[in-house]
Design goal:
Number of helices: 12
Helix content: over 70%
Distance between the termini: 30 Å
CATH superfamily of the largest domain: MazG-like
Structural class: mainly alpha
Strand content: under 5%
Largest sheet: none
Order of helices and strands: HHHHHHHHHHHH
Number of domains: 4
Shape: extended
Radius of gyration: 25 Å
């Protein structure tokens, strides 16, 4: 691409789109009405990263940046703040929360950096509690992982993955007991999922990504089953469970080494 646009050009275009002679749809939007787009674009970015599709990542980062500029433009119209205030805020925050880079402090490891980060955040917000700082708007798996990580940085965590595995076995037994005795199955499933997220965190696995990969794996294998049934002139819906199981095992054999994308 020969022509290179500067950031100010994007801000200008957004202002025009929201202006009197701009786009009716853009003018009609509010912070709340476009909030779902921010979430959607964030997931598109994550998908491109997981697939290592950098051309797509470039495009999706642009779409995500547009959402930031959009919100800043609407705030500017109401005299609340503008995009320069947003930039000033994040620059000041980065410098303030990286004293080991900008203020001569010493933090030789990532663990020490995160510990200092939490201390600085606490001083900034003047809060005595740390956990409420995690937004409940996150998807449940991400929310659980962030809560656990925050608690861990405050010194409240399992000693190792072996303890989490033991806790997982305990939760499975409680879930089985609740099912057999018609107890609170929902609560026990929640406890079990929370423990699985804890196990993933201790093993360095992103539980959200892991679940998405499992979902995609199931979906592709199931689609293989349907296509194979069709190739053989069979109606998939009318197959017995045993026949479907055979197709499932065939799908597993046909795609054993597939690198499932998230």
């Amino acid at each position: 691409m020969d022509k290179r646009y500067k950031f100010d050009k994007l801000v200008e275009i957004m202002s025009i789109l929201r202006g009197p002679d701009g786009c009716p749809w853009d003018r009609d939007q509010t912070h709340k009405s476009i909030a779902p787009h921010l979430i959607e674009e964030s997931y598109e970015v994550l998908d491109a990263i997981e697939r290592e599709d950098f051309e797509h990542l470039k495009e999706e980062l642009g779409d995500l940046l547009l959402q930031v500029v959009f919100h800043a433009q609407m705030a500017s119209e109401n005299g609340r703040f503008d995009i320069n205030d947003v930039i000033d805020g994040i620059v000041e925050k980065l410098e303030r929360r990286h004293p080991h880079v900008f203020a001569g402090e010493f933090a030789p490891t990532s663990k020490e950096v995160l510990k200092n980060w939490e201390r600085i955040k606490k001083e900034e917000k003047k809060k005595s509690l740390h956990l409420p700082g995690v937004s409940s708007a996150f998807p449940a798996l991400i929310y659980a992982s962030k809560l656990q990580a925050r608690a861990s940085r405050m010194g409240f965590d399992w000693r190792g993955v072996e303890d989490v595995v033991e806790k997982f076995d305990e939760e499975i037994e409680e879930l089985r007991d609740a099912y057999c005795k018609k107890g609170n199955v929902e609560e026990e499933i929640g406890d079990t999922l929370f423990t699985v997220v804890n196990m993933a965190r201790h093993l360095g696995v992103d539980s959200e990504v892991a679940l998405k990969k499992a979902i995609n794996k199931f979906q592709e294998r199931f689609e293989f089953m349907e296509k194979e049934a069709e190739k053989r002139g069979l109606c998939f819906d009318n197959l017995s469970l045993e026949e479907k199981d055979k197709l499932w095992e065939e799908a597993k054999r046909m795609m054993p080494a597939r690198r499932w994308r998230g």
